[in-house]
Amino acid sequence: MMRWQIHRAMLLAALAFATPWASAQQVPLQDKPFAEHKIVLQLSDGDVKKQALVLSVANNLLKAYDPDKVAIEVVVFGPGIDLLFTGSERRKQVESLIAQGVRFDICLNTLDTIERESGKRPEFIPAATPVQVGVGQILFLAENGYTVVRP
C-alpha cells in the first residue's frame, strides 16, 4: 500500500511540474522534415533598423539555403511587436516571407499588456502565429534544435 502512495505522489508531482510548460508552448514545430538548418530570430526591439535587419537575415537565409532545407521562425515580443501590426510599413515584406515558409510568432502577453495600458487591442497581420509567451516559444524552439539568433 505504501509503495502505491509513493508512486501516486511522484506522478502528481511530475504532472504539477509539467503543466506550466505544456500551457506555455503554443504551437507545434514547423513541418519541415528536410530542414538541415533551424533558426529562430528574436525580435524584441522597436527600432526600425533592427526590424529591417531581422527581415533581411530571414531573406538572406532563404537565398543561401533551399527554402525546404531551412526552417526559420521569427518570434516578436515587447517593442518588436510593432512589426506585425496591420498598419506596419513592412507588412508586405513580412507576408512575402510568410509565403516562402518563414513563420512569424506574435506574443499574446505583449498584446494583452498593450490592451491593458491603452484600452485597445492592436490588430496584427492575420498570417502571424499567436503564441502565449514569446520567450517561452524561443525556449521551446531552442530545446528542439533551433539556433537562436538575435540580429
UniProtKB/TrEMBL annotation:
Print the keywords alphabetically. Answer: Signal
Instruction: Quote the SUPFAM superfamilies the UniProt record gives.
Output: DsrEFH-like
Signal peptide, first to last residue: 1-24
Establish whether keyword Signal is in the entry. Answer: yes
Indicate whether Signal appears among the record's keywords: yes
Q: Would you tell me the protein name for this molecule?
A: Intracellular sulfur oxidation DsrE/DsrF family protein
